[in-house]
Design brief:
- The chain has 73 residues and is an all-beta fold.
- It has a domain at 1-41: Rubrerythrin, domain 2.
- Helix content is 0%, strand content 21%.
- The protein has no helices and 3 strands.
- A 3-stranded antiparallel beta sheet has the order 2-1-3, with no helix packed on it.
- A hairpin with a 5-residue loop joins strand 1 and strand 2 (14-18).
- It is elongated, with a radius of gyration of 17 Å.
């Protein structure tokens, strides 16, 4: 299911919205405004594998995608 994150440019409210197709009208949950900006978000997944807190070999940063690790550092 495509869930997108938005921020309202009028009232600065951040929210998530399930968008089924391109014709879905998205409005701010707080002020009902349509002056929105779609935020970049990273999808989440679950795994039965144990977590070790590092990057998988050849993986890279999960936030920016840089192959050198956390945001190019």
């Amino acid at each position: 299911m495509p869930i997108f994150e938005y921020v309202c440019n009028d009232c600065n409210h951040k929210f998530e919205q399930l968008v089924m197709n391109g014709s879905t009208v998205v409005k701010c949950k707080s002020c009902e405004g349509e002056n929105l900006r779609k935020l970049f978000s990273v999808f989440a997944s679950t795994s039965s594998e144990p977590s070790y807190g590092g990057f998988p070999e050849g993986g890279g940063c999960g936030r920016c995608g840089d192959p050198n690790g956390p945001c190019g550092s």
